[in-house]
Automatic annotation (TrEMBL):
<keyword id="KW-0449">Lipoprotein</keyword>
<keyword id="KW-0482">Metalloprotease</keyword>
<feature type="binding site">
    <location>
        <position position="270"/>
    </location>
    <ligand>
        <name>Zn(2+) 2</name>
    </ligand>
</feature>
<dbReference type="GO" id="GO:0006508">
    <property type="term" value="P:proteolysis"/>
</dbReference>
<dbReference type="Pfam" id="PF00413">
    <property type="entry name" value="Peptidase_M10"/>
</dbReference>
<feature type="short sequence motif" description="Cysteine switch">
    <location>
        <begin position="115"/>
        <end position="147"/>
    </location>
</feature>
<protein>
    <submittedName>
        <fullName>Metalloendoproteinase 3-MMP-like</fullName>
    </submittedName>
</protein>
<feature type="binding site">
    <location>
        <position position="284"/>
    </location>
    <ligand>
        <name>Zn(2+) 2</name>
    </ligand>
</feature>
<dbReference type="InterPro" id="IPR033739">
    <property type="entry name" value="M10A_MMP"/>
</dbReference>
<keyword id="KW-0378">Hydrolase</keyword>
<keyword id="KW-0336">GPI-anchor</keyword>
<keyword id="KW-0862">Zinc</keyword>
<feature type="binding site">
    <location>
        <position position="219"/>
    </location>
    <ligand>
        <name>Zn(2+) 1</name>
    </ligand>
</feature>
<feature type="binding site">
    <location>
        <position position="266"/>
    </location>
    <ligand>
        <name>Zn(2+) 2</name>
    </ligand>
</feature>
<feature type="binding site">
    <location>
        <position position="242"/>
    </location>
    <ligand>
        <name>Zn(2+) 1</name>
    </ligand>
</feature>
<dbReference type="InterPro" id="IPR001818">
    <property type="entry name" value="Pept_M10_metallopeptidase"/>
</dbReference>
<keyword id="KW-0645">Protease</keyword>
Length: 310
């Protein structure tokens, strides 16, 4: 009986062996740890929910510059899907040309799980500029397949759909030599986006106003005298654009002076809704050297296209 059964068992075993082998292989592949595996379990999550490991998602988005709970440690570490998280996910989705659902849908999860460049998408503020040094990507980061690029303000503020033509005005007292450089910067943005611009004298009703301000000028963002901050502009649809009056400004590229037109290109980017980019050639890259000029980059134009779905 046993001798009769043996060939049968050994035969089936032989047949099953490759299958067994495959199963083991599949199992070992599955075990390959992905640091972002928690994302899979979070798929489908949306605002108002409280789900285990949401805090890991917050950490993930914080590490890439989409989220900052710096003032609120409690919410940084809890599992609440709050307004900030929803806004951060929307920004992420806009940056990667995904539908801006604000929920952790399957497409967003797979994008997040795919390995990526270790450089933050959103580089904060002007630190790179104050130090006068250029920010370096980590060695070898070029070999990652995902490229970090343009970014938006938290909540993706933008000009309404109906407002593709914007008017701008210089506030009384603006130095006359700044007007042409600013006009050229607007033309450059107009030539490369769906926006058009025209100058108006009616500064009280203009969409955008430009002025030179010094030190404390009552907008909550005092300038700092020579060097440091050069200019600033508010996110849509505020429209204020201030140059620091205490800087050396120049119409043409001049050693030791800041190029009015280049700085205007950057600040108009902010006015239209762009935050800083991690692409070095982009006008929205947060480093700029005195005595140089710079133009728009594909990344800047893509950023506006993505924000306005154009
Ligand atoms: N002014 C900062 C800027 O426009 C102010 C700022 C910091 C800011 N963080 C912001 C404005 C976030 C909007 C949103 O970036 S700056 C550059 C740089 C400055 C810097 O004076 O430091 C340029 C002005 F860094 F890109 F070169 C213009 Cl081009
Ligand atoms: Ca300054
Ligand atoms: Zn100001
Ligand atoms: Zn900036």
């Amino acid at each position: 009986m046993a001798s009769k059964a043996f060939p049968f068992f050994s035969f089936t075993l032989l047949l099953l062996l490759p299958l067994l082998f495959q199963a083991v292989l599949a199992y070992s592949n599955e075990k390959k740890p992905s640091p972002f595996e928690f994302l899979q379990h979070l798929q489908g999550c949306h605002k108002g929910e409280k789900v285990k490991d949401i805090h890991k998602l917050k950490k993930y988005l914080e590490s890439f510059g989409y989220l900052s709970y710096s003032k609120n440690e409690t919410h940084a570490n809890d599992d609440d899907f709050d307004d900030f998280l929803e806004s951060a996910i929307k920004t992420y989705q806009l940056n990667y040309n995904l539908k801006t659902t604000g929920t952790l849908d399957s497409k967003t999860v797979s994008k997040m799980m795919s390995s990526r460049c270790a450089v933050a998408d959103i580089i904060n503020g002007t630190t790179g500029m104050r130090s006068g040094k250029k920010r370096q990507h980590p060695a070898g980061s070029k070999s990652f397949h995902t490229v970090a690029h343009y970014a938006f303000f938290p909540g993706n503020p933008k000009w309404p759909e109906s407002k593709s033509h914007l008017t701008y005005a210089f506030l009384p007292g603006t130095r006359a030599d700044a007007m042409n450089p600013v006009a050229r910067a607007f033309q450059t943005w107009a030539a490369n986006t769906h926006f058009s611009f025209s100058r108006t004298e009616d500064f009280a009703n203009a969409d955008i106003t430009i002025s030179f301000e010094s030190r404390d000028h009552a907008d909550g963002n005092p300038f700092d005298g020579p060097d440091g901050t050069l200019a600033h502009a508010f996110a849509p649809s505020d429209g204020r654009f201030h140059y620091d009056a205490d800087e050396q400004w120049s119409v043409s590229v001049t050693p030791g002076a800041y190029h009015l037109e280049t700085i205007a290109l950057h600040e108009i980017g902010h006015l239209l809704g762009l935050h800083h980019s991690s692409v070095e050639g982009a006008i929205m890259y947060p480093t700029f050297t005195a005595g140089e000029s710079k133009g728009l980059h594909g990344d800047d134009i893509q950023g506006i296209r993505a924000l306005y779905n154009k």
